[in-house]
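Closing statement on the zinc ion sub-project.
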Amino acid sequence: MTAAVVDRRGRPVAACERRESCAVCGDRRLRPMLELPRVPVHMGCTHRPADDDAFADQRWARCRHCGCLQLSALAPLDLVYQSQHNGAVGGVWARHHEALVALLASHGPRQVVEVGGASGALARRYVDAHGAVAWTVVEPNPTFVPQQPVRLVTAFVEDAVETVRPADMIVHSHLLEHLYLPRAFLTTMRAHARTGTLMVLSVPDLAALLDRAGANALNFEHTYYFGIPTLLWMLQDAGFAVEAMTRFERHSVFVTAVAEGDPGRAGHPPDADPGAHAFARFIAQSRRDAVALTARAEAFTGDVYLFGGHVFSQFLLGCGFPEGRVTAVLDNDPAKDGLRLYGTDLTVVPPAVVGATPGPAAVIVRAAHYTAEITQQLRALAPTAEIW
Ligand SMILES: [Zn+2]
């Protein structure tokens, strides 16, 4: 039976789509592993009433063939991505784009097709740093207006495959992990790319994220786990020869691969079981953490804030931290100021609010690789606040 999507009173509003076969290897044997009940399907903030929020159980399963952990029930895309929440503010993303642009430029592409790229940020940064290059962004939900020489095709790339053929470089950044059918996507890219075309991609370093207890590793957007061996296998399986792989700050992995050869010749997929076990450990550890934080909050007399108008806060609440104990959610994205964290009754405020709090205050920061820069910022804004 497939999972229902319900409103906050439990009334069905939609249904999840069943994942029929493994995202990585295509095997049809997906075995249930663990379930997280009633998770908000959207990971951002909203101005809409709480009655419009939707929730679904996260049903995690393991592939019998390759061991890949993945959601066996996929939430409707229009609910998952109902608003842009990736403001991509902060130092980590600026450094990420800079490093990726330098890698792209080292290959001197003449005609780039970027798949995804909603904000146009990578294209703009490349053009600003390295001058005019023919750069086409293929994106169904763009949030930018293109300026020469950047061109925009508003479509899923599967519906605009003719854009791929002229390219000597295909780029995608933090796209692959969002796809429900990544195998089909890579095979389509291979089928329409000329032999010799480079594909340069960036994906989150999921193993490192889980290691740092990042709730941003796996969720309704990132619906399957892949470590580096699995990622490289997926590329080979689709007909790409991997040329180079570099890690960016334990945050992302950059891979350069070249379209050559036929799909389906990569042999047996690597064992992805360690990822499934790491996720199970992460869930157990996060639930213990929520219990400990709850006790700490009960013993504390001041205001308690959560950092992040995003999955970090939703996940902590899902693990059992009481929403009623939270004064507000802090976020650096000005676009989220005053909005409501989806799936909760909590309002988002700028971090400076903590510094203006008259009594004692504490901020819970569980933000994986963003924790260091957030902590530094809070210490400057609110020197007397506790950071948990
Ligand atoms: Zn599999």
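Residues 4-80 form one domain. With this model delivered, the sub-project is considered complete and its resources will be redirected to Aim 3.
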